[in-house]
Amino acid sequence: MSASAVHSLWTTAAEPIGKIDAPHIEYGQLAPVLIIVGAAVLGILLEAFVPRRARYHAQLFLTVVALVASFAAVVGLATSGYATTEAGIVAMGAIAVDGPTLFLQGTILLIGLVSVFTFAERRLDPEAHGNRVDSFAAQGAAVPGSEGEQAAVKAGFTTTEVFPLVLFAIAGMLVFPAANDLLTLFIALEVFSLPLYLLCALARRKRLMSQEAAVKYFLLGAFSSAFLLFGVALLYGYAGTVNYAGIAEVVDGTIQDIDPVLAQTMGNDVLLLIGAAMILMGLLFKVGAVPFHMWTPDVYQGAPTPVTGFMAAATKVAAFGALLRLLYVVLPGLRWDWRPVMWGVAIITMLLGAIVAITQTDIKRLLAYSSIAHAGFILAGVIATSPDGISSVLFYLGAYSFVTIGAFAVVTLVRDAGGEATHLSKWAGLGRRSPMVAAVFAVFLLAFAGIPLTSGFAGKFAVFKAAAEGGAGALVIIGVISSAIAAFFYIRVIVLMFFSEPKPEGPTVAVASPLTMTAIAVGVAVTVVLGVAPQYFLDLAGQASVFAR
Amino acid sequence: MENLIALLVAAPLLGAAVLLCGGRRLDRVGHVIGTALAFASFGIAVGLFVDMLGRSTEDRSLHQHLFSWIPVGGFQADIAFQLDQLSMTFVLLITGVGSLIHVYSMGYMEHDERRRRFFAYLNLFLAAMLILVIADNYLLLYVGWEGVGLASYLLIGFWQHKPSAATAAKKAFLVNRVGDIGLSIAIMLMFTTFGTFAFGGVLEATGETGEGKLTAIGLMLLLAACGKSAQVPLQSWLGDAMEGPTPVSALIHAATMVTAGVYLIVRSGTIFNAAPDAQLAVVIVGAVTLLFGAIVGCAKDDIKKALAGSTMSQIGYMIMAAGLGPIGYAFAIMHLVTHGFFKAGLFLGAGSVMHGMNDEVDMRKYGGLRKYMPVTFVTFGLGYLAIIGFPGLSGFWSKDKIIEAAFAYDDGIRGWIFGGVALLGAGITAFYMTRVMIMTFFGEKRWQPDAAGNEPHPHESPKSMTIPMIVLAFGSVFAGGLFSLNEAFVKWLEPVTEFHHPHPVISVPAITASTVVVLLLGAGLAYLQYGRRPVPVTPPKGSLLTRAARRDLLQDDFNHVVLVRGGEHLTRSLVYVDHSLVDGVVNGTAAGFGGLSGRLRRLQNGFARSYAVSMFGGTAILIAATLLMRAV
């Protein structure tokens, strides 16, 4: 950038203020996001002004109402044609409201709603000094094991801040797949990441582990954000704009007038390739693809289980949404460059996730590696670069996320004196002691493994079909092999639950409130319905598979 | 009228469903319901027949499309029926003889406590057999084919408390399975070759298809026919199938089901016409079986097994005729119908004898029964005269034509061989049938009290049993003559099966004369051996051939040594390979992945710094790979 260009940048700020036009904002089409953000802000105010006793119910009510209202807004937009004919770019080019956006926003909101139910569960842990408690620390700021913590527990504190936090996270996730320029993308990423870092640190039991997980997640997340931001800068240097459509035009070489200020760097493919790779890396980190996956097992294990469920489901949906939009809107002209690289990432992600999961002994870590393998399967659909690829990924995300939330919700039920009993050896013979819970968990495991008549099969079939039709036959073969490896450890848990002798001091299955039960029931229902009659939802995803440019 | 076709099947199917689902409440009336529905089906058949006679020859083929069964892209399977002259013939035979045997069973099974179930199975059989012969495509035919197999299995093993009956049922089922594989492969081949398995489509398309494929399809169809019609080499089940109640033997294992193979070959005539090699194989199978069955029939002392050998042999005639092509199709079917009458009559007669003799089946313990059972004696005797081809009776008209057609196979040595075999078979038929006749109804009484001291009191059977026998005897006597009047039967079938006049290597009167001579010779020999001398109650040791024939010409021994032992060795070696090789590979793979997993998980060491390094390295590789892709 030349000195004169820098000068001109300085001087624009000096021009009269009256020349700045008020931005045009389409409030209606942004309503889902605005409702959530508004409710989150309101939640902070509740935290400040509502008496401690009433906070839990007030927050829960507000959160559920906000999520339902926002979901209604999404459905309203979709039925008004904003997913298809009316799809377009809003908020001065910052946000795209189209089929994938609305499909993913709807999915995220439902995930959020079900997750909030598990967040609000207060019957699993024994009462502390006459107060019902949830999975979260009495006081997040108290040092673990300190007198301050004891006092907070004795006083019956609960961290009701988790509700506004989760709303902020959801707001970021709603924007993430809708972001239509790189800066919005980055801001959305941070908006949903920061609350998640906090939530990870808030486990009531095993607090040190929880805090360690949060710190790791934060450090590595910040590290990956830096890469992403650097990638944004490089792409701006390449294209002279952060707008998706604008970058795509430069990539395709269809742009008419080149900004003289950026003429030297514009169209430099090295900038483009490095920048694109770095942004991809930032997104692959969020979906937990190898080799950016290492935070996943540690964080999944350390975070409070309801948070793990929410994170595992919703983050994946949001991040894959953003990845799809980036690859299909910004970089389709570059697909001959990114496809082979993504091939490699998908293959090692599937294989490594499946193989390392074999030797896991902790159920939460096992599910973490399983989520890595699933990220690989979804990547196979992403690589297809076809409308079928998009719709199959959308379907897979919907199917997978409800199985995940359900599975983690079951994990919260199996407890012993030290809280959740996550070591696999303690799950031995669970099927004898609690046949219903074990059977439900078995359904989820079968869905993870992709056994027919579960949503997992329909999803896997859809992405593999799309990938095979997109010319990625080898990828599909490796995917199927990985599925076979993965089936081993899923089935092993089933065998453990049903065909092993229960241990004498094994864990008990806690009786949960209707909240968690609802979450599990929704998980089972979605798993079975999407497995037995997937066509309606496949069609829905198919209709929602066109990106607005 | 075509809308009535489905009712043919619906009536007995309804009967089976009602009787099976109705439970014990229907125990007292079950047999009436079953018989009534069989007659209903027969009534519909007669109505359709009269209607068909009223039409001109071109309009006689009726068609009813019920619904699309399996519509998947280019794979169209329909539930659709076709009633042409060939099917009509079968429908009349099946429902007619079937109804008579229902009536007979009312008497025969009177004291059986599972009578309702028996009639349910009989109805089920009728429904399946009707589907088989009126299906308009091979896939639906296959449904009927399997259906009759099931009914046959259930009825052979009807007295399942007897281990021999249970074993026989299983044996029939397994042997039939081999044939069924042939049919399923044939259907698959048809679909890949012609893209359809509707009769119309397949038979039209044969003209444009290579002979090799048609030969393959033909041989597979022949395999199917061998299984269902008890032809060599899949004949071993029929003798044991006589463990079933005698009405079953008469209906399923003599008159109808076992002739399904003949129907299949005649129905697929166009394919065989275009595949001479397959046709030759059919003729050879028929010729071998007709001798095989006849020889076995000569040695059996069990009256039903002797008749079973005879059935095998007579179906051998039909298969042989069907293999002769257009000169034989009509006669194959004609013999099939006349055989349906006289063989069903003979079996019912045998059942009547057993009924009066405390279920004794050994002919050496009969003798002189003509005085005790006059009706049975007369009807059985007429059936006997018909089957040996006594001039003027049914068997004479149909069998003589087959022998003529066999002599007309070609002008050379083959015509002589096949004609000679057919002629020889006629002689042996006369021998073994005369033997059965003499041992049962003539000579001294040879029965003795059984172990419990009950001496049989031979008596005539009730009316419900004798009336069907009398009706069938009429058929045995007159059917052949009626069919041959003015070549009525041949002309009736000609639009479906095509007909060429045979031109035998020797003149027709000479053939007829030698047939009569041969049968007199056979009957005379039997009279010399069994009529002139007393029949020993304990069988003599007999020659090597006799002993082999008593053991069904060692077919079971052959199957045991070659198939059962061979199969055992094969499974054992497969199990060994499975344990050592397959399991080795599988377990090795699992162990390999387990080890790999153990090593890879060490990368996850818990240090954020290591994770960051791996992310950094990963990004570097990502960038390098992206740039590299552009460079290459």
Automatic annotation (TrEMBL), chain A:
GO terms for molecular function: NADH dehydrogenase (quinone) (non-electrogenic) activity; NADH dehydrogenase (ubiquinone) activity; quinone binding. The chain crosses the membrane at residues 30-49, 61-82, 102-120, 162-179, 185-203, 215-239, 270-295, 307-328, 340-359, 366-387, 393-414, 435-454, 474-499, 511-533. Its main location: membrane. The keyword Zinc does not apply. It is an enzyme of class 7 (translocase). The keyword Translocase applies. Keywords: Cell membrane, Membrane, NAD, Oxidoreductase, Quinone, Translocase, Transmembrane, Transmembrane helix, Transport. Its EC number is 7.1.1.-. Residues 179-485 form the NADH:quinone oxidoreductase/Mrp antiporter transmembrane domain. GO terms for biological process: ATP synthesis coupled electron transport. It is a multi-pass membrane protein. It comes from the Bacteria. NDH-1 is composed of 14 different subunits. Subunits NuoA, H, J, K, L, M, N constitute the membrane sector of the complex. NDH-1 shuttles electrons from NADH, via FMN and iron-sulfur (Fe-S) centers, to quinones in the respiratory chain. The immediate electron acceptor for the enzyme in this species is believed to be a menaquinone. Couples the redox reaction to proton translocation (for every two electrons transferred, four hydrogen ions are translocated across the cytoplasmic membrane), and thus conserves the redox energy in a proton gradient. This is NADH-quinone oxidoreductase subunit N. It comes from Streptomyces triticagri. The lineage of its organism: Bacteria, Bacillati, Actinomycetota, Actinomycetes, Kitasatosporales.
Automatic annotation (TrEMBL), chain B:
GO terms for biological process: ATP synthesis coupled electron transport; electron transport coupled proton transport. It is found in: Endomembrane system; Membrane. The chain crosses the membrane at residues 31-54, 89-106, 118-135, 141-160, 181-202, 246-266, 278-299, 372-393, 413-433, 467-485, 505-528, 611-629. GO terms for molecular function: NADH dehydrogenase (ubiquinone) activity; NADH dehydrogenase activity. It comes from the Bacteria. Coiled coil: none annotated. Keywords: Membrane, Transmembrane, Transmembrane helix. InterPro entries: NADHpl_OxRdtase_5_subgr (IPR018393), ND/Mrp_TM (IPR001750), NU5C-like (IPR003945), Proton_antipo_N (IPR001516). Residues 69-119 form the NADH-Ubiquinone oxidoreductase (complex I) chain 5 N-terminal domain. It is a multi-pass membrane protein. One of its GO terms (cellular component) is membrane. Pfam families: Proton_antipo_M, Proton_antipo_N. Residues 135-411 form the NADH:quinone oxidoreductase/Mrp antiporter transmembrane domain. This is NADH-quinone oxidoreductase subunit L. It comes from Streptomyces triticagri. The lineage of its organism: Bacteria, Bacillati, Actinomycetota, Actinomycetes, Kitasatosporales.
